Amino acid sequence: MIGIVGGGIAGLSAAYRLQQQGYDVQVFEASDDLGGLAATYETDGDRIEKFYHHLSKSEETIVDLIEELGLGDDLRWPIGKNAYYVDGVVHPLDKPWEILAYPHMSVYDKFRLTMLTQEIDVRGGIPKFDTYERLEDFEDVPIREFLVEHTSRGVYENFFEPLLDAKFGSRKDDVSAAWLLGRIKFRGERDLLRGEPLGYLTGGFGQLVDALVDAVGEENITTGARVTDLDVEDGEVRSLTAEMAESEAEAAPAEADGGAQTETHDVESVVVAAMPNVLESLTGYECEVDFQGAVCALVTMEDQLTDTYWLNIGHDAPFGALVEHTNYIPPERYGGDHLLYVASYVQDYEEDLWQMDDDEIEELWMGHIEEMFPEWDRSQVKQFRLARNPRAAPVYERGYLDLVVPYDLSEEVADGVYYAGMASRAQYPERSLNGGIVAGYECADRISGRKRVVSPE
Fold first, then answer.
1. What is the reported pLDDT for 254?
2. 272 φ, ψ to 5°?
3. What's the pTM?
4. Residue 433 and residue 13: Cα distance in Å, rounded?
5. Strand partners, 232
């Protein structure tokens, strides 16, 4: 049997792939819910993710899996309208004429920004098309230094700096230029006349989690089961021990361990598809990747706030972005309600935002939205639901690729130990559902001995 630690997208994908290759698997998920960051809320219509999700055209592995699981007809690619809120005005920034009309950068700045997004290096006056091919060449380059040199100071100060403040806060100066270039490549295709098509599953990505659970089989998945130990003998993993929640312990025979109900399973291999702190607790492997927390609210409203899907905020707001989901997926899918995500990253758990309770955050955030949009009436809000995750995304600092955890940990830990969590290579340059699937597949293919290279190690 192959043991899978973690029932998120990566763990379920690893289990699915291993079963296709003829292995018996058992997934152990510590919480009561499957899906990880793709967990969902109920609405008056379709379920919706607790943390916003969409796909870019470059994410081919997840699209293939969606097709394979029979959900291809539910995958849509609507245009997600983007805009920038500056000085009380929402500036659309999708179409060429909207970008030209943006008043907070010069024509020269806009030209340099456009060239960078098209991956064209115009320094020296002669366009070069291969400068940005290798992300590794920019791993140790500070992002500010890169942007000032490859675009202009105006592009950095008037466009990127507020976005970096929102994304990385006090850590922005640690971030590498490779991350930014990777994001540009990651975003994929753009329709010059309409904007960027973004993928979404009708009914939400909870459908994908459900389909994976059905494919793997509920009998091969145990929730409320925290893996507490891996037994290694002669350099090979031999078994894992899981501590069971009370309901699970009652349903299966278990042995006492200091009062806790536990189960021990013999395993051929183990895939740790969880955060690196779980890997360290089980194996002692120390991961040096730093993570940031996220606080994300889903606001259910009677009417829309704006006509924009993704609104970046160009001032010192208590949140980083407003993502109005029902300007992307019609509100009719949610019983006619309008759904707005309000989100912020946290770099230090001593920050005020992380210490606030839900009511305090609601008052802070809704009050600021009222200041930004004086015509908006807070009485439109029907529900305010808040999700927090202490390790929502890595901090992509300089030298990040030297910090990622290998898929195969036979040299570092023991034969038969693999890693598919968020600190894997597949979750670079941005963490995503697609990256989770790729990481799960990479570990499964290494176990089977039939490795299919999806991304470099």
1. 47
2. -90, 105
3. 0.91
4. 10
5. 237
